[in-house]
Amino acid sequence: xxxxxxxxxxxKKNQNLFVFVAKNKHSGNNRINWLRTIAKKTPxxxxxxxxxMELVNKKKFFDLDDRLLVLYFSAMKFIQDEFxxxxxxxxxxxxLKRQEFARLxxxxxxxxxxxxxxxxxxxxxxxxxxxxxxxxxxxxARYTNKNVKAKEYLIANSFNNVFEAMIDSxxxxxxxxxxxxxxxxDGKIIDHLYKEKSLIFADGSxxxxxxxxxxxxxxxxxxxxxxxxxxxTYAKNxxxxxxxxxxxxxxxxxxxxxxxxGVRYRDSVTEGYSVTPNFFIRGFVPKYxxxxxxxxxxxSKKGETKDIVEPSEDDMWGKRNRHFRNRLFDRDTLLLxxxxxxxxxxxxxxTSKHSSLRDEFKKKTRKRxxxxxxxxxxxxxxxxxxxxxxxxxxxxxxRLQDFVDRHFHALVGRVFQPAGTPHCLILALEQSxxxxxxxxxxxxxxxxxxxxxxxxxxxxxxxWPHEIWDNGNSQKWDDESLQQNKVTELGVxxxxxxxx
Length: 500
Description:
disordered C terminus, alpha+beta, 500 residues, 4-stranded antiparallel sheet, Alpha-Beta Plaits, disordered N terminus
């Protein structure tokens, strides 16, 4: 049997089989059967010669040799009518009527008919076709058996598209404007897109776009090359669209209107960019152990064999997109994470009659993505809240802007001002650069910042990623609460030593 949707006609490698059988069957259709003509027809005599006005020809008919092929194309027609997939058809063999073929699927009738004609076939390809039809009728008997608990079957020839559609329905924002935004002007189409509270100081008043892509790779295949490049292009396209004339409303804090309403990408004071979450979701089917695999929690930590498992982050961190070193808050610095997700749980959730299960999936999935990005940032960056002296005075905003402008080259991409704490700047530096400095070989860019902090007599406060990116239900993260973490000695290295 041909794979569903594989071709519009008979598979080419077996086409000659059907033509050969058809020619044998049709041979002699236009030849006169003289024995039957002489025996059954009366001639006219002209001179000494008989003239027969009615001739008996060999007639075309389907015998048992053709039955197997008729059943095959009847099965193709049944699959096409029942499931809507285009299946191979033949110009030589007329399929059985739907009701007649449906009766063959009941009570093993089709299998019994096959057994009656089995001895007719010796050619290898016909024997293979016979085995295929035998398997089909075994399935058909179960499919039509009313006494057996009903089961649903999914037939697809582009399974990656099915997986993508299910994930998108479960985690993405379902909105016409979001659907338009997925279709980039360069022709690329984003798989998953949803608006969630911003990663940077998420007080709920501002959002950021989360951008995802589904891949149904074989387990041994890695996500690399073109897929990674495309994912970064998706993120760049979204940021570009955010700043397009259609949406920018002139707000100093760089909020947009329309579909981008509530999103804040750029901080106007430091011209730093918010971190954009990017992720791959890969489907996998775990080795079957028990039916509980459909119900188990679908998230897991590394090393656990649950439903979502993360591959090593080392490769993705090495493949991060950046134009400049050590600039987290730069427009072109993009990070990427990869998730493996249990397809069995996705299928169960997607097909569930209860919307609460899908809502729970969306809530927990988005939360998991957020927490893992915090972990990624905490594993690779050190963070400080930076204050100028006398931050309570009325002229502080002007002094802060002047500070950024004077040291812009050293600070750009490394500092960002959260909307909820206008008195401080968040400084982020890669741990690798800082660790080199701690060993005595100061990093050049890091040394500049260290000197700036010392000369300006800045106050440094140790902060953890979860304090910056997700305050949750904990104590509000503001200027007063930060005073509890104040570092007595000035300078980045001194603050880091205490931080460690």
